[in-house]
Design brief:
The complex is a heterodimer. Chain A is mostly helical. Chain A is 78% helix and 0% strand. Chain A has two domains: 3-92, no CATH class; 95-256, MetI-like (MetI-like fold), CATH 1.10.3720. The longest helix of chain A has 31 residues, at 170-200. The chains are: A mainly alpha, B mainly alpha.
């Protein structure tokens, strides 16, 4: 990929982050007075005014915006309205727990979804393919919270084997991971299948077979590596979908990660913490998308541009 | 001479569904139609009002379990409200929110797509940037924050849901319109003096309607999932109004004692998204084979 495009894509990513920061500021600051939200609207005026001054929300919106950008540039994200702790710190100490959940989910989703997709593609139209695709559609359509309540109902209530809330041991991971991984596995299976089918119909596969390569070898040497390349493109979508999944899953299973913090902070209107989490999620997605773009062009300079364009236009 | 027409393939079954319908697509369509009928006719089909409290008939099991009876076919909840009637009204709310939300998204997206293709240059750049921005947003958590911070009105909620997914329609409309503008019919219309509104709405829109419809059916399940997830977390449709998501959310506290409160709406959500997905896949195959995979 030419250097110019790398620079252009990076600049775009930075612009997207800036837009996101601005959007977060506008949306959240316009939503109302944090002081009266914290203390209740019937609090006396001078008390409210004092709190406004303390929170820095008594100035005009443009003034606040510039101050806001300045603070962020210096790495200051404000203090939680609740316990006056540094918002960034509050969020960051929970990040490892959410990453643990997402990491295990990713391993499970890849380990099941990709082989399932390959198996489906190789048996296209037969019962195995149909069975896998039926499961994939079902998994895709099951909302996380429905899986979660089914799991709670079936596993913990009936057999009492696994803890339904909390964090700590490997056992605590099982239910949240199943909840999150079902959707991701289904997505991977569907996507792997379609990528593989596309590869199998390529002329180079026919060439490989025509020159006498046995079918299993042709699949292993030619089809599988080429299937891996388009799979990279769903990285950004995957991260976004896991962030959404973590919010739901963590709040149901009382997993003390960023997702649960987000739901509680939103409910309590803890603006600084909410801001940090949205920015963190947005930056993760932008960085992933940028990495995917660059990686894709690097992995396959020949069809990189062409395929990326086609997939962007059609797939989700 | 070689006969160019191939003999018709013998039918695999004695009977065939018209339009290449599969049994799955038919079942899905039936389910979707039933949901629509319920959405429209909920007040007529319900046995009680959705918030009618009956404290003497609390937590009654569905009719097929011991202790259940026909007064509450699907049981009753913690306040003795009829689960069947609440389910119907929840379907009504969720279907309404999802349809209006989807239509808003499709309208915004299609309009912006046309504008980008028509004006090009700066407008196009701006729209493409907005598309990339929207695609890079953690939309669900932003929606959660907006709904929570601005207070829960059903109109705001529908508007937020409506913003979801517009970039898909915009991308398709822009790309296909740019392609169409280079084709003979569009050039001919321009030469004949057709105005832009006539050109886009009367001539190009019908040509790209297939792809947009496919996009719509593929987006619809996501819209339902978004609406139900937000409502489940208690940040979407607010009581006393009821929706499928918030019914599951409240029923969650009674999973151990009265599972039917949560499971009935949960199953409805699953079957509805499943039906629309299966129907959408079939539609994608029918309308635009190139769009699939």
């Amino acid at each position: 990929m030419p250097f110019r495009i790398v620079v252009q894509k990076t600049l775009r990513a930075i612009l997207t982050v800036l837009l996101l920061v601005t959007a977060v500021f506008i949306v959240l600051r316009l939503s109302g007075d944090p002081a009266s939200a914290l203390l209740g609207a019937e609090t006396e005026q001078d008390v409210l005014e004092a709190l406004r001054q303390k929170l820095g929300v008594n100035r005009s919106i443009p003034e606040q915006y510039i101050a806001f950008l300045g603070e962020i540039a210096q790495g200051h994200f404000g203090r939680s309205y609740l316990d006056r702790r540094d918002a960034l710190e509050t969020v960051m100490e929970r990040v490892p727990r959410t990453l643990l959940l997402m990491g295990v989910t990713m391993v499970v989703a890849l380990a099941i979804g990709i082989p399932a997709g390959i198996a489906a593609a190789l048996s296209q139209g037969r019962w195995l393919d149909r069975g896998i695709m039926m499961l994939a559609v079902a998994g895709f359509c099951l909302p996380g919270f429905v899986i979660a309540i089914l799991l709670i109902l079936l596993l913990s209530v009936t057999w009492g084997l696994l803890p339904t809330t909390g964090y700590g041991t490997a056992k605590h991971l099982v239910l949240p991971v199943i909840t999150m991984a079902t959707h991701e596995t289904a997505v991977f299976a569907r996507y792997t299948r379609s990528a593989m089918l596309q590869v199998l119909s390529q002329p180079y596969m026919r060439t490989a077979l025509a020159k006498g390569l046995p079918w299993p070898r042709a699949v292993r040497r030619h089809a599988l590596p080429n299937t891996a390349i388009p799979l990279v493109t769903i990285g950004g979508f995957f991260v976004g979908s896991m962030i959404a999944g973590a919010v739901i899953t963590e709040s149901i299973f009382a997993w003390p990660g960023v997702g649960r913090l987000f739901v509680t902070s939103v409910a309590l209107r803890d603006l600084p913490v909410v801001q940090v989490i949205i920015m963190l999620a947005g930056i993760s997605m932008v960085v992933t998308n940028l990495t995917v773009d660059l990686l894709y062009g690097w992995l396959d300079p020949r069809i990189g541009a062409l395929l990326a364009k086609r997939m962007k236009g059609t797939d989700r | 001479m070689i006969d160019a027409t191939e003999p018709a393939a013998p039918p695999r079954h004695a009977w065939r569904l018209p339009l290449g319908l599969t049994p799955g697509a038919v079942l899905s369509l039936v389910w979707v139609v039933v949901m629509l009928i319920i959405a429209i006719g909920a007040p007529l089909l319900a046995l009680y009002d959705y918030d009618q409290i009956d404290l003497r008939g609390r937590l009654q099991p569905p009719v097929w379990l011991p202790g259940g009876d026909w007064r509450h076919p699907l049981g009753s909840d913690d306040l003795g409200r009829d689960v069947y009637s609440r389910l119907l009204f929840s379907i009504r709310t969720s279907v309404f929110v999802a349809i209006v939300g989807t239509v808003i998204g499709a309208l915004i997206g299609t309009t912006l797509g046309f504008l980008a293709a028509h004006f090009g240059r700066m407008v196009d750049e701006a729209v493409v940037l907005a598309i990339d921005f929207q695609a890079a947003l953690p939309f669900m958590i932003l929606a959660l924050a907006v709904v929570a911070f601005f207070g829960n009105s059903i109109y705001l909620f529908v508007a937020v849901i409506g913003i979801y997914g517009w970039e898909r329609y915009a991308r398709i409309t822009r790309g296909m319109t740019l392609a169409a503008l280079g084709q003979g019919y569009a050039v001919a219309l321009k030469v004949l003096g057709a105005g832009p509104v006539r050109l886009y709405l009367r001539h190009i829109l019908p040509n790209i309607a297939g792809a947009l419809t496919v996009c719509l059916t593929l987006t619809f399940p996501h819209v339902i999932l978004l609406e139900t997830s937000l409502s489940f977390l208690g940040l979407g449709v607010q009581p006393p109004q009821t929706s499928l998501g918030n019914m599951v959310g409240f029923g969650r506290d009674y999973l151990l004692t009265a599972w039917w409160i949560a499971i009935c709406p949960a199953a409805t959500i699953f079957l509805t998204t499943l039906a629309i997905s299966i129907f959408g896949d079939w539609l994608a195959d029918r309308l635009d084979p190139t769009l699939r995979n």
